[in-house]
């Protein structure tokens, strides 16, 4: 049976409000065809990382860069992306206030073997070009990346870290984290690393799975992964959430829809006086 999911949309006066819309069955997760079904446990502290396939073929790198540029052109021409670029949208105004100077693409999967992952990388490249300052930096990471993918990422302007931090990444500057269809534990790890003060958390913006939907999952399954994500559940109290687009905004093609469905922006406009520790306790309840 389909269930109504909670999301937020901009109102006429540019505020965002939570509304109900039809969604997938309770307990279902977004499509993750490019990610392993059973991801390994997250490292508690950063550990050295090297590509899963160390072989480096320049011809494969060139082909992958060309295929990614084709994906960038496709996303750029879509109704979905034009909606994101509306000059007076609440999203753009919130990004101006945040002033992100970095974009991190985490959990992208293998963008050489998976069309969904290439489209997601294409969106990250466009967001950096069109919505972030010219000097903004960019990085991407997934433990499954190969040496070919790391080399292609470098040609596309993305650095690849040599440590796997399990998304426990404390930011030093306002950062847009694009985490397409990641496991809830990864979002929770990122929030936990920046949970020590409201000022620190305000530096974070997350583009990824809907936190409101995770709250619905937690109510449905009290022992499931969403119910254990205390920071994600606590953050929904002050997170401003907006979906990137409804079904009608996405191209009528399977790979494109699977790349961007069930994805929302999250800004954490938390007041200085908020007790973040109490918010975690409230999320657990």
From TrEMBL:
Supply the Pfam families for this chain.
SRR1 (PF07985)
* All copies of domain SRR1-like, residue ranges: 101-267
Report the family membership. Answer: Belongs to the SRR1 family.
Q: What is this protein called?
A: SRR1-like domain-containing protein
Which species is the source of this protein?
Urochloa decumbens
């Amino acid at each position: 049976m389909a269930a109504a999911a909670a999301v937020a949309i901009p109102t006429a006066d540019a505020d965002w409000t939570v509304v109900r819309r039809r969604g997938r069955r309770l307990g279902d997760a977004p499509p993750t065809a490019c990610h392993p079904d059973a991801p390994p446990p997250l490292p508690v502290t950063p550990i050295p990382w090297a590509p899963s396939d160390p072989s480096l073929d320049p011809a494969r790198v060139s082909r992958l860069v060309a295929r990614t540029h084709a994906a960038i052109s496709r996303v750029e021409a879509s109704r979905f992306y034009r909606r994101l670029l509306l000059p007076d949208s609440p999203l753009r105004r919130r990004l101006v206030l945040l002033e992100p100077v970095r974009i991190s693409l985490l959990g992208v999967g293998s963008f050489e073997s998976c069309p969904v992952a290439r489209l997601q990388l294409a969106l990250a490249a466009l967001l950096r070009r069109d919505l972030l300052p010219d000097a903004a930096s960019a990085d991407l990471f997934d433990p499954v990346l190969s040496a070919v993918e790391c080399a292609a990422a470098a040609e596309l302007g993305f650095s690849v870290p040599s440590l796997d931090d399990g998304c426990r990444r404390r930011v030093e500057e306002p950062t847009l984290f694009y985490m397409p269809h990641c496991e809830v534990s990864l979002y929770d790890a990122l929030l936990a690393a920046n949970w020590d003060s409201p000022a620190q958390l305000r530096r974070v913006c997350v583009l990824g799975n809907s936190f409101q939907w995770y709250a619905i999952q937690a109510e449905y399954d009290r022992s499931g992964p969403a119910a254990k994500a205390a920071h994600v559940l606590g953050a929904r109290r002050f997170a401003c959430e907006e979906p990137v687009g409804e079904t009608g905004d996405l191209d009528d093609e399977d790979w494109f829809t699977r790349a961007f469905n069930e994805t929302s922006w999250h800004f954490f406009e938390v007041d200085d006086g908020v007790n973040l520790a109490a918010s975690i306790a409230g999320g657990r309840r």
